[in-house]
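Predict structure. Chain length: 116.
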Amino acid sequence: MAYYLVKLLISALIVVLVSEIAKRSSLLGALIASLPLTSLLALIWMRVEKVESQRIAAFSSSIFWLVLPSLLFFIVLPLLLRRNIPFWLGISIACGITALSYILLTSILRYFHIEL
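Prediction complete.
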């Protein structure tokens, strides 16, 4: 149980740290947020938990493919906000478009027999 609390605290600390830095500097906050911190933490936790290397490699490969449609979110949201779309509506639309792009990408990958 203590191990999960340590994982939770470290992970939460990083999220809070990024949001606090972003309040002071958009560029520095964005730089830190753009790092694959969540992926790195997950990979490290998997290794610590003795998950075999092949599963870690498969997870890492899946992350690569799924990052592509997630980038669409960071294109759509600023466009909507700059057009004075209310934040909650804009973020909802951006999430919806991103979800559709995940569905499209996974269908394309399945068509080409690429496993996630």
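Summary: Residues 53-82 form the longest helix (30 residues).
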